[in-house]
Amino acid sequence: QQPVQSPQAVILREGEDAVINCSSSKALYSVHWYRQKHGEAPVFLMILLKGGEQKGHEKISASFNEKKQQSSLYLTASQLSYSGTYFCGTWNNRLAFGKGNQVVVIP
Amino acid sequence: DGGITQSPKYLFRKEGQNVTLSCEQNLNHDAMYWYRQDPGQGLRLIYYSQIVNDFQKGDIAEGYSVSREKKESFPLTVTSAQKNPTAFYLCASSIGLLSNQPQHFGDGTRLSIL
Fold it and tell me: Which chain B residues are Cβ-neighbours of A32 within 8 angstroms?
């Protein structure tokens, strides 16, 4: 079942912070995060496993709350290069992707 | 450099025609996947394969077929039964079908109807 991502779109200025969320109605074994720029392939950012861990990629970090069946991605001190669509994938025998969070960082 | 190669980049299909999208990987990955991407819909799984000579239907397999005769190759055929084939198709691979393994994507094929 497809996870739900929110908000659908975020516009922020360079240097600002943002949080995007991914939630599922099913129990999760792991959550994957990918970023896709327009017309390009999705690029892997990080995987979070059960245990409430946090991970980071550049100044992008994420948390995974398995009890709440949700993950959040934190964009800290955003850069122009952070623009793109962020997809979460939730694992339950196989990966199911959400519809994405569109992030636009402006100067 | 290791990676996934999809071809062609753009493809046009006539009514009633079958077309085949190529996907080749040299990452020595066992698992391969095909996704369809429509605007605002995210990535939807068409077919996946854990190992050579084995593949499983995903969420939207109707109108598509695949084969996995070689570890490196996982071609997707869009048949005439797929009534709305216009989309961006992405091929991916991973070491195995495991929750802790990232998927690596090709650059995609954009299919349109003539």
Answer: 102-103
